[in-house]
Write a structure and sequence with these properties.
Helix content is about 80%, strand content about 0%. By secondary structure, the protein is mainly alpha-helical. It has a domain of about 130 residues. Helix 2 runs antiparallel to helix 3. The longest helix is centred in the N-terminal third of the chain and has 62 residues. It is rod-shaped and about 95 Å long.
């Protein structure tokens, strides 16, 4: 073999090796991006489910405590914020706002024994509790998927290829007002 042929074979081998690394890195990043997308979809499904329950809950409580209009308006506005939120940061901020509003609503409901015995209210209470649990699970799943994606994007040599292929880190779903969610919404009566 001539030295030129050896150099050519080495160059071809290096190019093929780089192409193989780029191919596997790209496919891995796509996999983790899709997992993050799927997990975000799980959060939005649960937030939508809860948003659909809230008007029924408000109407049920309103039947017993019509004079508490400020609380109902606050819950309705917070629900609208969750429904209209775009992206992780907006959703997290709206989530904290809604948690605080729901605490106020349940505090009002606590003052009405007839409401606490209402079958419709009890069913809604159970559904809200179930949905809150599902939201927490979806948030954990999303944050785990984001952690994995961000790790893959930041480690070498993935960070080189991630930049070339347009992959970027995602934000974790973290509520801005931590105090608003430190105590879970009390829905037992």
């Amino acid at each position: 073999m001539t030295p030129t042929l050896i150099i050519l074979l080495i160059v071809v081998a290096v190019v093929l090796l780089l192409a193989l690394v780029a191919w596997t890195t790209y496919n891995a990043l796509v996999k983790y991006k899709l997992q993050a997308d799927e997990s975000w979809s799980g959060i939005t499904v649960q937030l939508k489910r809860r948003a659909d329950l809230i008007p029924n809950l408000v109407e049920t409580v309103k039947g017993y405590a019509a004079h508490e209009s400020g609380v109902f308006e606050k819950v309705t506005e917070a629900r609208a914020s969750v429904v209209n939120a775009t992206g992780v940061k907006d959703s997290a901020a709206a989530e904290g706002e809604l948690q605080g509003a729901l605490k106020s609503l349940f505090a009002v409901a606590e003052n009405y024994p007839q409401l606490k015995a209402n079958e419709n209210f009890l069913q809604l209470q159970a559904e809200v509790t179930d949905t809150e649990d599902k939201i927490q699970a979806a948030r954990r799943f999303y944050n785990a998927a984001v952690r994995e994606l961000n790790t893959r994007i930041q480690i070498f040599p993935n960070n080189i290829f991630a930049g070339m292929f347009g992959f970027s880190s995602r934000e974790f779903f973290e509520v801005e007002d931590q105090a608003a969610i430190e105590q879970p919404v009390e829905v037992k009566f």
